[in-house]
Amino acid sequence: MPIKNFIFDFDGTLADSGETGVLATQSAFKQLGYSEPSKSLIEYYMGVPIEESFKKMNPDYTYTEREFQTLLSTFRKLYQSIEQENMTTFPNIPLVLSKLHQHQKKIFVVSSKHSTPLQRNLQQLNIDQYFDGVSGFDQVEHYKPAPDGILLIERQFNLISDETIMIGDAIFDVQMGQAAHVKTAAVTWGAHDLKMLVGSKPDYIFEQVNDILSLQ
What we know:
About 45% of the residues lie in helices and about 15% in strands. The protein is α/β, with parallel strands linked by helices. It has a six-stranded parallel β-sheet with strand order 5-4-1-6-7-8, sandwiched between helices. Strands 2-3 form a two-stranded antiparallel sheet. Strand 6 (about 165-170), helix 8 and strand 7 form a beta-alpha-beta unit. The longest helix is centred in the middle third of the chain and has 22 residues, at about 65-85.
């Protein structure tokens, strides 16, 4: 059955945020006196909402609710202050999205970001016009790798699972797609390395952005 519906992760798949996530995370932890997580640890948890990943990055500390909310808000302010300087699309992403759109494919984003900054980022990158819908973590009960984000999009737009693919740079994206019973593709230009992605057993592995067009 041909693939008609393309669901993308955002950070590390569509958007190259450079060091934005790493710098904002490390700065937030440092400003508030917590142990600064390593770059590799932060990159591993990209794709998981900060509401969950920040606790896993500092497992020996139990935050009060006030402390944790302060950490989250500090990160968000730091991230927004530097994202415009650091965030771009990966090469050829706008072209690929344009071609999918021209071929009347339905295109979506399911992200662990809140839907408000997600929409802002899509507009900043000038690719928001290609998307039929987006799902942020605030719109679902369970985060990646739970299938909620994909299932929400499927319900809203009456999608058929056999005609749908989830494309992401992290094992959590592949696991989410598998849990939702859609096809999955892992891309190698983001957070997780090839060995880790192969181990998650996606249906496809793409090493070049233009490879996505082979699914048309």
